C-alpha cells in the first residue's frame, strides 16, 4: 500500500547499527550478545540520551574493560560535521553533515527566547521533485536511518547543554521534520525517530510529542497510517497551491493524490489526534500569491482545525522562483483572515546562511 514502498530509495550499504536504531528491549538483546549483562543497555542509553555523551571515559558506571566494546558496537559515529555557519548572533546554526557513504544532509538549530527548535533531515536528497526546492532538484540519494536522524537532534542538544549556543545552557523543546527529504517516504525510520525523541530516558530524549512536527507533501496512505500510531505530533502539509492545476506543477506528487484527497486525510488526522494541522504555503512571486488563490485556500480551510504558515520563499541561486512582493504577501494574509483562518508569516531566519533546505549541500563542491 504504503507510500514508503512507492518511493523507494536506491539500494545502498547501510550505516552501522546504533543504539538509537533500537528499542530498549532490542538494546538489551544487543548488549547480551556482546557478553554483557542486559541492564548495561539502560546505563549506556542514559549516557547517550540523558548525559549526551559517547565518551567511554565518562561512563564510570560501566566496567572499564567493557566500555570501549559497548561504545564501539552501539555508539558508532554516524555524522561528521563538514561545515557550520551561524547568524542571528549565533542563535541560528546550520550544520552540513557527511554520512558514512559521503552523502550530505543538513540540520538547523534555532534558538528563540521561549524555545529551541531543531529542523532535521530525514533523507539524503529528496525524490519529490518540487521545482522551487533546492533539495528536490538534487534528487534522492537514499533514506536515512533512524539513528542518523536522531543524531542531528542529539548533536544540537549537546551543543545547548555545553553552552555553545548564546543564551546559556539550554534544552531542545521542538523538533521539525522540515529539512532535506520527504519524511513520510521514509516512514519506518521517521516513526522510530519520533519514538526515540519522545520516550523518556533511558528509552529516549523525553521531548513532548506536542513539540514534534512531521511534514509531508501529501502522501495520503502514510498520513492515514500516521494517524493510527498513537503519536500526538503536529502534521504539517506542504500544500503550496489550493488548486490542482498549479499544484500538479509545484508539487508533482499531486498528480497522484489531489488537493481534496490530501486535505481529507489531514482532517481525519486532526479528528483522530485532536491536533491542529499546519498548512505550509511557500509564497512565490506571481506564481501562487494571487488574492483569488488566497480566497480559494480560505474556503477550503474555513472552519477546520488548522493554521496556515506562509513562508516567504528563500530563493536558490540561479532559480527563476523568488519571494512574493511584501504588498502581495500582506494581501494574501488579509484574504485568508477574512475567511476566519489563522495565519502566520514564518520567521525568515537563516536566509543569509543559505537557510533553505539543500542550499548548503548544493554549494559544497563534492556534494
Automatic annotation (TrEMBL):
Organism expressing this protein natively: Sphaerisporangium album
GO cellular component, as recorded: cytoplasm
Catalytic residue positions: 106, 357
Residues involved in [4Fe-4S] cluster binding: 126, 130, 133
Sequence similarity: Belongs to the radical SAM superfamily. RlmN family.
Superkingdom of the source species: Bacteria
Keyword annotations of the record: 4Fe-4S, Cytoplasm, Disulfide bond, Iron, Iron-sulfur, Metal-binding, Methyltransferase, rRNA processing, S-adenosyl-L-methionine, Transferase, tRNA processing
One Pfam family this sequence matches: Radical_SAM
Obligatory cofactor(s): [4Fe-4S] cluster
GO biological process: rRNA base methylation; tRNA methylation
One function term, GO molecular function aspect: metal ion binding
Binding site for S-adenosyl-L-methionine: 181-182, 215, 238-240, 314
Miscellaneous comment as given in the Swiss-Prot or TrEMBL entry: Reaction proceeds by a ping-pong mechanism involving intermediate methylation of a conserved cysteine residue.
Role played: Specifically methylates position 2 of adenine 2503 in 23S rRNA and position 2 of adenine 37 in tRNAs.
Enzyme class name: transferase
Catalytic activity: adenosine(37) in tRNA + 2 reduced [2Fe-2S]-[ferredoxin] + 2 S-adenosyl-L-methionine = 2-methyladenosine(37) in tRNA + 5'-deoxyadenosine + L-methionine + 2 oxidized [2Fe-2S]-[ferredoxin] + S-adenosyl-L-homocysteine; adenosine(2503) in 23S rRNA + 2 reduced [2Fe-2S]-[ferredoxin] + 2 S-adenosyl-L-methionine = 2-methyladenosine(2503) in 23S rRNA + 5'-deoxyadenosine + L-methionine + 2 oxidized [2Fe-2S]-[ferredoxin] + S-adenosyl-L-homocysteine
Protein name as annotated: Probable dual-specificity RNA methyltransferase RlmN
Record's keyword annotation contains Methyltransferase: yes
PANTHER family given in the database record: 23S RRNA METHYLTRANSFERASE, RADICAL SAM CORE DOMAIN-CONTAINING PROTEIN
Domain Radical SAM core intervals: 112-352
SUPFAM superfamilies per UniProt: Radical SAM enzymes
Keyword Transmembrane helix: no
Intracellular or extracellular location(s): Cytoplasm
Note describing how the cofactor binds: Binds 1 [4Fe-4S] cluster. The cluster is coordinated with 3 cysteines and an exchangeable S-adenosyl-L-methionine.
EC number annotated for this UniProt entry: 2.1.1.192
Amino acid at each position: 500500500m504504503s507510500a514508503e514502498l512507492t518511493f523507494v530509495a536506491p539500494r545502498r550499504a547501510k550505516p552501522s547499527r546504533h543504539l538509537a536504531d533500537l528499542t530498549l528491549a532490542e538494546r538489551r538483546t544487543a548488549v547480551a550478545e556482546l557478553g554483557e549483562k542486559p541492564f548495561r543497555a539502560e546505563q549506556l542509553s542514559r549516557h547517550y540520551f540523558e548525559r549526551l555523551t559517547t565518551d567511554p571515559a565518562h561512563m564510570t558506571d560501566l566496567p572499564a574493560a567493557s566500555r570501549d566494546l559497548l561504545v564501539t558496537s552501539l555508539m558508532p559515529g554516524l555524522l561528521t560535521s563538514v561545515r557550520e555557519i551561524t547568524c542571528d548572533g549565533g542563535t541560528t546554526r546550520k550544520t552540513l553533515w557527511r554520512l558514512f557513504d559521503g552523502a550530505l544532509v543538513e540540520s538547523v538549530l534555532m534558538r528563540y527566547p521561549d524555545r529551541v527548535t531543531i529542523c532535521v533531515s530525514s533523507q539524503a536528497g529528496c525524490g519529490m521533485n518540487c521545482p522551487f526546492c533546492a533539495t528536490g532538484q538534487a534528487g534522492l540519494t537514499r533514506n536515512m536511518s533512524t539513528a542518523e536522524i536522531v543524531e542531528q537532534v542529539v548533536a544540537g542538544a549537546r551543543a545547548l547543554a555545553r553552552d555553545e549556543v548564546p543564551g546559556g545552557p539550554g534544552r531542545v523543546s521542538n523538533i521539525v521534520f522540515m529539512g532535506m527529504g520527504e519524511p513520510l517516504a521514509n516512514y519506518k525510520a521517521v516513526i522510530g525517530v519520533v519514538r526515540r525523541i519522545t520516550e523518556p530516558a533511558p528509552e529516549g530524549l523525553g521531548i513532548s510529542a506536542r513539540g514534534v512536527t512531521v511534514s509531508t507533501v501529501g502522501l495520503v496512505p502514510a498520513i492515514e497510517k500516521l494517524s493510527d500510531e498513537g503519536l500526538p505530533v503536529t502534521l504539517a502539509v506542504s500544500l503550496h497551491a489550493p488548486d490542482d492545476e498549479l499544484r500538479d506543477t509545484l508539487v508533482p506528487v499531486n498528480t497522484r493524490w489531489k488537493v481534496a484527497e490530501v486535505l481529507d486525510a489531514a482532517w481525519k488526522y486532526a479528528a483522530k489526534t485532536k491536533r491542529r494541522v499546519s498548512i505550509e504555503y511557500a509564497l512565490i512571486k506571481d506564481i501562487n500569491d494571487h488574492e483569488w488563490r488566497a480566497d480559494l485556500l480560505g474556503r477550503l480551510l474555513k472552519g477546520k482545525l488548522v493554521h496556515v504558515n506562509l513562508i516567504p520563499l528563500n530563493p536558490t541561486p540561479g532559480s527563476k522562483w523568488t519571494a512574493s512582493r511584501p504588498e502581495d504577501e500582506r494581501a494574501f494574509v488579509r484574504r485568508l483572515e477574512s475567511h476566519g483562518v489563522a495565519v502566520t508569516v514564518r520567521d525568515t531566519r537563516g536566509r543569509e546562511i543559505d537557510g533553505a533546505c539543500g542550499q548548503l549541500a548544493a554549494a559544497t563542491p563534492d556534494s
